[in-house]
Amino acid sequence: MTKQTHKTGTDRLFEACELLKLDENEIVLNVQGDEPFIDPVDIQNLFNLLEKNNANMATLLQIYKITKKTILV
């Protein structure tokens, strides 16, 4: 288990990677708890992109079209 003093999930993930002694070439995908409906296909596509391009980091995003009828909360 990781410490309960972390301010962010990313901090917790960093500690977990250190505890597991992951190689710097390992790919770790961090899906936060506030993203329960993320499409598994998007996760796989992100993994493939990271692996293919040897990227250090990537972020998924959703583009929304805002119109006059869009309700912002």
Secondary structure layout plus pairing:
Layout: H1 9-19, H2 40-53
Note down, in words, how this protein is organized.
The mean pLDDT is 88. This protein has one domain. It contains two helices and no strands. The radius of gyration is 16 Å and the shape is flat. With 73 residues, the protein is an all-alpha fold.
List keywords for this structure.
mainly alpha; 34% helix; 2 helices
Structural class per helix/strand content? Answer: mainly alpha
Q: Please describe the biggest sheet, giving its number of strands, its sense, and whether it closes into a barrel.
A: none
Helix content: 25-40%
Q: Gyration radius, to the nearest Å?
A: 16 Å
Q: Averaged pLDDT, please?
A: 88
Shape: flat
- What is the H/E order? HH
Number of domains: 1
Total of DSSP H or I helical runs spanning 4+ residues = 2
Number of strands: 0
